[in-house]
Amino acid sequence: MGCDQGGPAVPELTGPPPHVVWTYPANEAVDVPLTFAIRVQFDRFLMPSTAVRGAMCLQAATVGGESTDTSQCIAAGFTPEYDPVDRVATWVIRGEILEDTRYNVRLFAPKDPQDANGVRAFDGAPLEKEFTFAFTTGAKPVGPVPHEPARKLPFCDVRPLCPLPAGACDSPTPLAVTNSSYEFLAASCTSGGGCHAGDSSARGSALRLDDDGAGGGLAAAVQHLVDHAVVASETAIGPDPWNPTRNALTAFGRNMPYIDAASPGNSYLLYKLILALSPRCPLDPSEETPTHGAIACTPEGEYARGTYREDLYDCKALDDAVVPPDSSGGCPRDGGFPAPPTKAGARGALVMPPIDPWIPADQWQPPAKGEYDRLRTRIRGSGMPGGGLVTRTEALIVSFWIAGGARTEPCP
Question: Is the bond preceding residue 385 a cis peptide, omega within 30 degrees?
Answer without folding.
Answer: yes
